[in-house]
Fold:
Amino acid sequence: MVNKNLKKEAHWAEAVKKCRLNTESVRMAKEMGLNPLSLIKNIPSKDQLWKAPVHVWIRELYEKRQAKAAATKQRRLPDELVED
Structure:
């Protein structure tokens, strides 16, 4: 168990270094359940000019998921609480 957590933290440390992530981006990625190795694999190469940097990609994905969750929550509100 301890070795597994150390290995996981080592992967996150590697992702932070290679992807140049700040603590806020790491928090968002962990909250969404992203794998640190998948973040490393999504680093754009020089040929992939269309691809956003990893920290921008995380932020956009997080905002989309938050908007989707808010819309779902709004739909589930009881009719009495919704003001006309």
Summary: The chain is about 70% helix and 0% strand. Residues 2-72 form one domain. Residues 74 and 80 are 13 Å apart (CA to CA). The first helix runs from residue 2 to 19.
